[in-house]
User: Fold this.
Amino acid sequence: MKRFLRIIIRLVLIIGGFLFIFNLPSLLGIGRDHVVFNFETFWGFMKSDFQSLLQIKDAAYLSFFKQLDIAESYHYSMTILFISLIFIIFMGMVFSVLIMLAPQKLRNILKSGINFFEAVPDLLVIFLFQFFVIMLYKETGIKFLQLYGVFGAKPYFVPIMTVSFLPLFLLIQFLIKVMTDEQSQQYVLYAKAKGIGRLRTLLIHIMRNIFPLSVLQLRTIVWVLLSNIYLVEYLFNINGFTQQFFKIISMGGDFASLVVCLLMFSIPLLVIEAAGWTISKLIRGKEHVTI
Amino acid sequence: MKKYKITIIASSLLLLLLLISIFYPAYGPKDYNHQVLVKNEQGKIIGRAPFPPSEDHILGTNRNGEDMHWLLLYGAKFTLISTFGVAILRVLIGGLLGIFLSIWAPFLKSYVKDFFLPFRYIPLILIGIILMIPIVGNFNDVAISSIVTYQIIILVFIGVPSVTIFASDVTDELLKTSFVQSSILMGAGKFHLIRRQLLPYLLSYSVLFTVQQLISTLHITMQLGLFGMFLGGRNRAGIFGLDDPDKPPPTPATITNEWAGLIGQNFREFLLAPWTIFSPVIGFFIVIALVNMIKKELEENMNGLQVVKKMKKVSKAESKTFVKQGSFELVRKL
Assistant:
């Protein structure tokens, strides 16, 4: 019973949080020369938004949302996310293993090179990619790479490259750090003593042990990827999910549409969190048995 | 002081930039070398803005014929002051709330987390756009000061929840240490606890938090600027050559010429004049890189603190689940 009550309180709080945060502009009105608080309008908006969330049976429910071509644009954005994620994981593993195998001096140089990318703002990367593609076009006159999403075009290559550039370095940095930590473990020394090669130790033994931590780290990667995808879709004028989101907020869609749209944005994060939770639970369960 | 060499150098560079920008009226041209058309001796027009970078215009000019480097120098103070102020306010408010949450109301913590759940799943930039569009998304005639106040409130608001939770986590960790525990056992009051035991630690944490929040604020203002949410609202004066007086909505331009605004104002002309974008973005990059260097050094120095070590150890212990420690022992100990 107590647990049930707790769940109800949490649900109410989550909905209340949504209502409060997105109605903040109506609470803080702007006066002639200072900010004014108008609690009455705020309360009114809260109530009407709450009602709009509840009217599921109403025919007009999510009507605005249904007008947009959600399925196709969502599919496109998520395809970009998925391909970039696979690309990042694959390249991240390859690069980090290569860097770990490199001689000490070279490794340190490469490491500081990777740390440098931590400070690069995502906008700079996006603009540089754009500049590069345009220059390529100007120099050769041939359109190798589709950049802009005009006339319903859906470019894949350039957005994926642009989006996954910074997260790739983030993942490599992380992997190198965990691998270096792991290498001071006794079993690595034991493997070395047994005459197992460095590559084999890295790929089979260390990789297996850092796997759960890496899955947890993937949440950050997906988070960065998502916010990069919004920027890229906006800048390259691609008709992705971000455009639908802007339609909702600029053309006065109702609150329910906004919430559904935002929830759809966060589905990848939820999936990756669930994966991390399952894996850590699995491992804990295993440990339980061995004890 | 040797431990903080980079911090001192980087922060004095930032301070220098701020001072140069504040004293801009004393030396810089008031109209940023405004020059739209270039004529030769016979009075023939040989070129019009935007001009690419050259000896006369170090970073090129924008469409209004204004020199980018003067604009950047002029606008730097708004960017630096607003982001720094927002970062400090975030840490101050979030830190106080976090301490309150841990010491007086620990039972509320999970509920606070639930209430601010959207911040965990929705990128800050989207929340920022939703919250700013009603006020900044259009031209309006209210005073700049109230627009700026509103924007600062929103910028502070979107950062406070994460700082609160983090500060509360750190305080919880501190409360578990033995010196705090023994202080409680000896009957220390809550205020005494905060002042004597927690504050010395929390102060050094707050410096690190501020630097982290500064980086995040710089990113978010830059991205908001791209979407047209300029600090100080939009300027009706518009951009020369793009605006048609017959068609009402003028192209939004920034009033203050702060850097994010310069990006947002110019990015549509990327094909024509890439230098108008690259110069403010690279300016941002330099500032963020400086702040990041400070952060790195502070973090390294903080690693000497006991609590951080402990927190790291805890997270490590959770991760190392495959190899069970202590199952094997050497028979003959050396």
